[in-house]
Amino acid sequence: METLSLKQAIKTSALEIGFDLVGVAPAGPFPEQHYFEQWLARGYAGEMTYLLHGCEKRLDLRLVLPEVKSVVVCGLSYATDFPYSISRKDPGRGWISRYAWGQDYHQVLLRKLQRLLERIQQLVGAKIAAKMYVDTGPILERVLAKYAGLGWWGKNTSLLNPRFGSWFFLGEILLDLELPADEPMSDRCGTCRRCIDACPTGALVAPYVLDARRCIAYLTIESRSAIPLELRPLLQNHIFGCDICQEVCPWNRKPQISSVNEFQPRDGFFNPDLAEFTQMVLRKFIGSFKGSPLRRSKQVGLLRNVAVAMGNSAELRFFPWLEMLTKHEDELVKEHACWAIETLQKVCQS
Ligand code: B12
Ligand code: SF4
Ligand code: SF4
Predict the structure, then answer these.
(1) 158 lines ligand 1 (CB under 6 A)
(2) 40 and 133 share a domain?
(3) Each residue's pLDDT tens digit, 86-135
(4) 3-state class of 207 per DSSP?
(5) Do 282 and 175 fall into the same domain?
(6) 76 pairs with which residues across the strands?
(7) Pocket test residue of 155, 238, 244, 248 for ligand 2, highest count of atoms within 8 A of CB
(8) What's the pTM?
């Protein structure tokens, strides 16, 4: 099969398998890679040292797969028609980021990529060297997605697509197969800067640049440390991740809804009452969180986050819960619970 029709057949297969977006990127190098080095040098990665250790590979795909000639990049929407956090103002209820409401996306995408790879090998009629990645691999997924024509980099650093907004995950197959690359999409942010203005912690330090150390997604999911005191009040009711810079984006006003049922919210994950959520974390962490992205924070991380949200709530009904958390065996949980009690006491006095 000549390469253009092979590429078309691969794209058709990806859509049949259920991906919403698909394109082909060259194997690089890409001019924007230097942004990644600059970003690391400024310390914006915080505790995510795996980004530093994998730096060489991220800058050269051949260190990941020596035979790589092109990359098939796929996108899968996780948009649901549930409301946005910016329209829900109850401080006694926590916010879990939309991407984490349902099943862990890594497995969902990897299963689909595996089927696509099998289909590619059938089309080629031979086994070819290949590697699949979803999120955790040492590659710059958004750079590849841009060059595969899936979207443009938003100023909030998410990849945006006119049909799906930014509510989609990425997955890639690196291939020992020469395929014609797609055209990158042009930037459609224009003069807009809503995401930058809406970020509660000032984490978007410039257009297209995120200081992860200030980002609520990093602080509540990736960081294993104490949340800096000055940032705690700014976290508001966020207990796992944050969607604000995506919710305010005009391209996310009416995104096409995902067809994947596994991304619908589990019971108790959409805007949960903070006390009920704490009870679930304490009693059912092993059971209720199986196969959920929330496991990444571990039980201790979730309790730390809940304590901060309770402290920010100005709701005195959380005192008994916080008292209980001050007796937790983990120092991190204790310290955040004490902070929250002091914060609530100040509300009582004022
Ligand atoms: C580390 C990481 C994070 C960190 C840091 C995020 C960040 N913006 O860098 C934290 C924990 C904060 C995070 C949060 C989230 N993440 Co994340 N994350 C990653 C991961 C593992 C690496 C990203 C990385 O290398 N960052 C370093 C920066 C420098 O690289 P980059 O963002 O790709 O930047 C490129 C361009 O933006 C451009 N660029 C950079 N600076 C500049 C400056 C200018 C002027 C220009 C023009 C371009 C430009 O060049 C860069 C590469 O050199 C990727 C998976 C992967 N392997 O790529 C997922 C990934 C980016 N995350 C993803 C998601 C879904 C999220 C969250 C929405 C989850 C949530 N709600 O909590 C949030 C969104 C927050 C946000 N505004 O980005 C998706 C993004 C999907 C999409 N449509 O964009 C990915 C691709 C995972 C996946 N497979 O689906 N994430
Ligand atoms: S995810 Fe939240 S904290 Fe992070 S950059 Fe976006 S708005 Fe700011
Ligand atoms: S809010 Fe505006 S500037 Fe930010 S990503 Fe969306 S379109 Fe771009």
Answers:
(1) yes
(2) yes
(3) 999 899 999 999 999 999 999 999 999 999 999 999 999 999 999 999 99
(4) coil
(5) no
(6) 169
(7) 244
(8) 0.97
